[in-house]
Structure formats: structure tokens, C-alpha cells
């Protein structure tokens, strides 16, 4: 790694190496530093309407649904997401497409000139860089995924046009707390007075609604203000005068219902026909994504108990068709391994584990140890990497078996990279 400051003619890789080297911490909570830099270079004066999207799971699919429905109406849309799977450019989309490296280089160069001696983390550089790009390209709407929690996340320096909470579960306990009530209070920090706040969680902790009432946010709640019901091939969504029966999408119906409600609240909902067309083509990379047909391989970023619970429902539909399920899991060390494995254990016939590289990566041996606490689980093999595991498993996989590769964004990236080779 180099501490030499790159320039506007440097490569994006040079800039990313530099950003990784200039701050000692991966995460530093607080808004003061980020807001100071943003104000120094005028990033908070954009005319774009910003929708903040927070949640333990479902941010990416909710943002993709909003993006599709807004683009279908001719709006210019900027979307910021993290982390990326393969390339940094995935984090910033304009009108549904990634941008050339130079847009990111120009944005980072602007930040470097304007930050003075204020330190920024990698994520903070990325967030401000995205805002700089969206301002430069004069998008109509910005969909801004919150990185961690809400209240002290770098994205929370903006004044949102609306705020969305997708789901609330335990993750990043060292920063957000070890109860759903604490997590919910932190995420509610993205609410603003007299501003729409759409909450999609199915069991909303009182700490979130208490805070919303305290600041007089315009809360719209799942289960009371809007309702969705999921069936085998379709789902229904009800909100005020809307009562739609829609084909079941490839992403969670809960997140679609939340996105539709948000657009309705903002008077941005397209026609029923456009909604149906958008949902039919909605696919999000890394979310129960098919990588191979023969042998059958899927991958998913599920890395906490809630997302693993949803993954189990997708796998169960294949069990019902007569498939056996072989799970290859690789996870980060700070995740709830037992909780995740337990949620899918009832539908998994055999387990393999792979180690993940890097300071946060966990070992296959530790995952095997976690599995020992779950009764009736069959462990097959451990591997040094996702690639080594796929090399060994795929040649011998029976035609009646589905291999699911999951546990982390890094795991999914490894699987996607393997098949792209």
C-alpha cells in the first residue's frame, strides 16, 4: 500500500489502495467529520431528492425495485450501494448502469482537495464520492443505502426526501447493540421531522415508533398502514386506495411492498402495468442467484439469521421438487455462525465449509465447530477456499442435488468469479 496521494490522472485502483491506507479504522461512527468535508465542497446543496434506505437486510433489493420503477417513468436516478461483489464500480449506478473509472477518480480527487486535514474512512470516501457524482450528473432522485445502523452512518448527513427501514435484526452488535430495540433506535436516526418514514419490518420494535412520534416523522407502518400477503405464485399489496395482485417477484415480496408504499406516499407510483413489467425483470446479483444449470448451483449473500431464514424458504421450494440440498458456507468471523447455520439446517442434507481470507475471514474448522451444536447435521468436508471447494464438489455433484454457496458477500464474489472464469 502507498501513502503517495494519487492525482486526477491516476488509476481507480491506485485511488482505492490510497483510501484503504489513509485511515486506521475501517469504521468510525460519527457525522461531524463527514459533514465538514461535504460542506467544504458543496455536496449538500444538490437539487436531487434523496431517499435514505436502512435495514439489517433488504436494502439492496428495495433500492433496485425503487430504481426500476423510477427509471420506467423517465426519471434520472442515482443509486449508492455497498459492499460490492466484484468491482468497486458496482457501488454507484446512474440510470441503472455502472460508470467508467474516471468518474470515481474525479470524485476522489475532489474530496482529497477539499478535505484538508480531516481524516475519512474508506466507506466515508465512497459515500461522499457517490454524492459528488450524483451532483455532477444532476440526477432527479438519489437512492442512498445506509451502510451500518443509521444514526451515525456517513449517509445520514443528508436531508432526505423520505426515509425507509426495510428490516430490523441483530448484526454488527458491537456497534448497534444486542437487542432489536437498540438496533431499531439506531436505525430510526435516519427519520426527520414531518418527512415520510416507511417501515417495512414485520414486527416493529417500539423504540423505532417512539422515536418517530417524538420527532413527528410521518411514519407509514407495515402491518397496519400497508399490508402484503404472499402466495405460491403471486402476492397482494394494499395501501390506501391501492389493492394490487401481482406476480411473485424474484426478490422478497416484503421489500417490494415497502418500495411500492414509499413511491405511493411520494406520489411517484407508476401504472399497474408498469409495476408488473418491472417486477417481472427484477433480478439482483447475489440474491439467490443461479450460477450454473448442470450441476445446479445457486449463491446468496445471506450472512445473518434473518437473511438465512429467507434463504431457507427458497431452498425448501427445491426440496419440495425432490432436490437434495448441499450447502457450501463461508463466513466472516464476527457473524452469528450458529444462528445462521441453524436457520437453514432443516432444509440442508449435507454441509461443506470453506475458509475466507483476510483479517475478518473465518475458518472452515470454526464453521464445522459451530455446526456441532446443531443436531442431525451431516458434515461432508472443509476446504481452504471457495474456489478449492467448488473444484472438488462440482465434478461429483449428482443431478438431483442443488449446491447453495452462501454466507458472505466475499463468498458470493468468490463463487461468481469462479464461474465467470
Automatic annotation (TrEMBL):
Domain Mur ligase central as annotated: residue spans: 53-218
E.C. numbers: 6.3.2.12, 6.3.2.17
Keywords recorded for this protein, A-Z: ATP-binding, Folate biosynthesis, Ligase, Magnesium, Membrane, Metal-binding, Nucleotide-binding, Transmembrane, Transmembrane helix
A Gene Ontology molecular function term of the record: tetrahydrofolylpolyglutamate synthase activity
Pfam family, one: Mur_ligase_M
Domain (Mur ligase C-terminal): residue spans on this chain: 286-409
Pathway: Cofactor biosynthesis; tetrahydrofolate biosynthesis; 7,8-dihydrofolate from 2-amino-4-hydroxy-6-hydroxymethyl-7,8-dihydropteridine diphosphate and 4-aminobenzoate: step 2/2; Cofactor biosynthesis; tetrahydrofolylpolyglutamate biosynthesis
PANTHER family linked to this entry: DIHYDROFOLATE SYNTHETASE-RELATED, FOLYLPOLYGLUTAMATE SYNTHASE-RELATED
Name of the featured protein: Dihydrofolate synthase/folylpolyglutamate synthase
